[in-house]
Amino acid sequence: RMMHDLATYAPPRGATLCFGPPSLQHQLTRLGVEWRPLNDWQSLRYPDTRLLILQADGETLAQHAAELRAFLEAGGQVFMHRPPPDFDRARAALNLPVEMQPYRGSALRAEGDNPLLASLTREDLYWLGRHAGSPWSSTPLAADMAEGVFVRRLDALKGTTFEAERDVELEGEIVRAEGGGVIFATVGRGHWKLNLPETGSYVLGLTASGTPVDDVYPTAEVFLDDQRIGVLYVGSRESRLYTIPFQARAGEHRLTVAFTNDAHRPPEDRNLFVDKFVWARDTGEVNVENLTVPAALVRLPVGKGHLILNAIRWDAAGRNQRRAQRFISSLLSALGAGFRGQAQTSVVEAERMTPQPNLPWFRREADHVYMGTSGYVEGRVHVAAAGRYRVWLWARGTPADDEYPIVALELNSKEIGRVECASDDWSPHLLTVELPAGEFILRLRFTNDRFSPTGDRNVWIDRLEFEQVGGEER
Q1: Residue 278: phi, psi to the nearest 5?
Q2: How many CA atoms lie within 13 A of 171 on its CB side?
Q3: Of 182, 184, 300, 301, which sits most exposed with the smallest number of CB within 10 A?
Q4: Dihedral, CA atoms, 435, 353, 466, 458, nearest 10 degrees?
Q5: How confident is the model at residue 5 (pLDDT cuts 50, 70, 90)?
Q6: Neighbour-count burial for 39-67, b at 16+ CB within 10 Å, e otherwise
Q7: Rg for the chain (alpha carbons), in Å?
Q8: Closest by CA position to 229, among listed 270, 184, 279
């Protein structure tokens, strides 16, 4: 299969354009994607452009809905990265059959055999959280991998509603029916009977609200006959509708909602309130391909093209950065993005640099340095030609208070740039700087050491790679 793919490979035709903030452009450059900025929406035409990587607010998306739809219907691919909180404006303007619900948790690879899904591996979407407890205890999945899920709109389906407080069987220390619903003040479960008239696809809607602790809202796992069909992140104090697609046979079923992440830290108390349910038969008239479970990554056909909606935080993956880079590189490649080859670079090895005098908690290893406190390492460099350079700092770090180590680059004691080493794995962290020609003292300064109950912020530095670039900064 590999030899066949190599023999039949043809480079993708058409350009990859990007419309988005500098942070997204920075990430694409870091990945090595060959892209150009979209400066004129009238120039967005297929097949001259094959792929548009897009991140914008709802107003901008609605304003350019006509250009987006024309591009998609002609055969273009649009990768919409982390849609905005006002996504409803874009959804209405583009007439999309899905809405975005708040969610906070993991997103595993879905099962299926479509070519786009085949480009994704289970490992690259298996993000881990911080390990706690004994060495042999299980490491939890990352709780911040995705920030939303995309689900069918129930208003387009004819549904059946039933109140949560009726005919319910409850489990849990403080779980009770009151106030026109069911309140989960501790972890617990509620069970209801659900009669489905025929075998097929359905959508279940749960109207619920919650209260947070440390800005984390309730998580509800939903089961049908003891088989989990979805996870809901009830991310609002106001009552909202949250939906899950599922498959079921005709007949009576046992529907279970489990509140799983109770917490109490005065004055905050995380609780879940379930008001009512609605379920509806999904006729399957709209083809929505869920690429992950839950649906944080979906593909929608639009004319001859496809719209890919992504709520996976691959650009802020922290300790899962290596998996995230493999995931997004594979996905963009499958969508038609090209990647530039390895450019010629000049390398400065950190272990050959000199540490600040009397720097505590410093260690020089065979191929890197470790810095356990703020300070610097320095060395002499020769810049042969003045100009703009991409600087790749290969490093890893550990966070404290949700912030990773920040390393500043200094040239003759003048700071020329800084970068947050936001990865527990060895990864390249990109800066773009202007360098004059000549001999200089280059310093790498660790600026924000911290030890707190949330962690110990330290940095490991391998090397710097310098690549001279010309033209427009990308």
Answers
A1: -145, 135
A2: 10
A3: 301
A4: -100
A5: low
A6: eeeeebebeebbbbbbbbebebbbebbeb
A7: 25
A8: 279
Q: Which two tokens stand for residue 139?
A: 């490491």
pLDDT tens per residue, range 359-379: 999 999 999 999 999 999 999
Angle between helices 22-31 and 321-334 (to 10 degrees): 90
The amino acid at residue 416 is I
Q: How far is CA 407 from CA 44, 117, 162, 458, in A?
A: 39, 37, 56, 11
Residues in the chain: 474
Q: Half-sphere exposure of residue 34, counting CA atoms within 13 Å on the CB side?
A: 16
Residue 97 near residue 288 (C-beta atoms within 8 A) = yes
Q: Decide: residue 172, CB within 10 A, 0-12 exposed, 13-18 middle, 19+ buried.
A: middle
Whole-prediction pTM? 0.77
Q: How far apart are CA 359 and CA 373, in angstroms?
A: 8
H or E, element range at 163: strand 159-163
H/E run at residue 29: helix 22-31
Give yes or no for a contact between 404 and 472, defined as CB atoms under 8 angstroms apart.
no
Identity of the amino acid at 122: R
The token pair that represents 321 in the structure block: 């950065």
The string of DSSP letters for 434-446 reads EE-SEEEEEEEEE
Question: From CA 27, how far away is CA 419, in angstroms rounded?
Answer: 13
Structure-token pair, residue 278: 């609605």
Q: Which of 252, 254, 259 is nearest to 192 (CA)?
A: 254
User: What is the Cα 329 distance to its own chain's centre?
Assistant: 13
Phi first, then psi: what are they for 223, rounded to 5°?
-125, 150
Token pair for 146 = 């995705």
Q: DSSP for 258-273?
A: EE---EEETTEEEEEE
As a whole number of angstroms, the distance between CA 210 and CA 236 comes to 6
**Triad 3, 339, 144: Cα angle to 5°:** 100
Burial (CB count <10 Å: 0-12, 13-18, 19+), residue 18: buried
Give CA 126 to chain center in angstroms: 12
- In this structure, what token pair is assigned to residue 334? 């499958």
Query: In the structure encoding, which two tokens stand for residue 211, read together?
Result: 């209260």
Do the Cβ atoms of 366 and 147 come closer than 8 Å? no
- In this structure, the strands spanning 219-224 and 251-259 are antiparallel
d(CA 145, CA 104): 7
Q: Say what angle helices 65-74 and 87-94 make with each other, to 10 degrees.
A: 50
